Amino acid sequence: MADWIPDVLGDEFEQFTLDLGVDEQGPVMATLVRALPVEPGWWERVRGPVPLLEGVDVLYVHGWSDYFFQKRLARFWTSRGARFYALDLRKYGRSLREWQTPGYVADLATYDEDIAAALGAMGRPVGESPHTRRLVLLGHSTGGLTLSLWASRHPDAADAVILNSPWLEFQFAPARAAIAPMVELQARIRPLEAAPQVDLGFYSRAQQEVADPDDPMEVNPLWRPAQTMAVYAGWLHAILSGHKTVAAGLSISAPVCVLLSARFVPPTRWSDDITSADSVLVVDDIARAALRLGPSVTVERIDGALHDVFLSRHEAREEAYRRLDRWVTGWRATW
Questions:
Q1: Distance (Å) of CA 22 to CA 27, 37, 325
Q2: Exposure check for the chain: N or C terminus, fewer CB within 10 A?
C-alpha cells in the first residue's frame, strides 16, 4: 500500500495517491492532501478547552482548471480542531499525467470514485455508518457542483456542506436550455472536440492585483493556468446535465452554506471592477439556484469578493472568513 509522502505545499502537508484503475486514456489516479497541524503538548491537552471542531473531518474539492493550494483555508479548520483534507480530482493538479486530457470527464458522477477513495483513505468508507466523526464537504465552483450532486445522491453522508461560489447554473441561465441539445449531440459525436478559448485571463489577473502580502500563495501555472484549460464537448455536456439536475431540485439533508460575491462583472474587457466582483459566474443566478439544494440553505453575499471568495482583496477575504466562522460556530451549537 502506498504511503503518505511530503506535499508540494511544504512541511504542514502530506499527500496520498489514490489508485482509480484505468480508463480509455490509461491509468487514473486522484490525490488526497492532508494538513498536519502542530499537535498541542500534554499539558495543553489536559488543561486547554476542547477545540470547537474536534471530531470533524473536512473534505475540500477544487474548481475547474484548478487544484488545492490554499494553506490558510486549511489552517482555518485545523486551528479549530478539525482534520482537513483536500482532493485533487483525476486529471487535475497533482493527479494530472502526461497521457491525460486535463480535467476531462463525460459524467460528473465519475467523481463518485474519487470521493469514495478519498473518504476511504480518511477512514470513513462510503456506506459504513454511523461514523463517530462528522463530515463537512467544502467545494469551490465546479467542485461545489460536484459535491452538491454527490451529497444529494448520498443522503446523510455529510453533516454540513459549504460552497464557495458553486457553479450551480450556466452563465446566463436562459441560454442553458437553448444550447443543451446542441452540446449533447456534439458530445455524442465528438466528445473531445475543444471549444474556442474565451477566457482572456482577467480572473487570474484580478487575483494577482489583490494579492495579500500577509497571506501569500504560490500557484503552479501548469496546474492552474492563467487562461483556463480547454473546454471539451463531453465535459460541457456533463456540466449542463449537472445544472439541469440542480434546477430540478436536490435533496441535501445537511445544512448548506453558500458564500458568494455581491456582484458579477462580465470579463469582456479589463477594468478595476473585476478586482472586486465575481467575473466568472452570474452570482444572482447562483444565489437563486442555491435555494434548490435542500431544506436548509444559508446564502452569504460578500461585497468586493472575487469568484474564489478566499482569494479576494484583504477586506473581502477577511469578511469571508468571518462569515464562515460565524456559520460554522452556529452549526457547531446545534450538536
A1: 4, 34, 40
A2: N
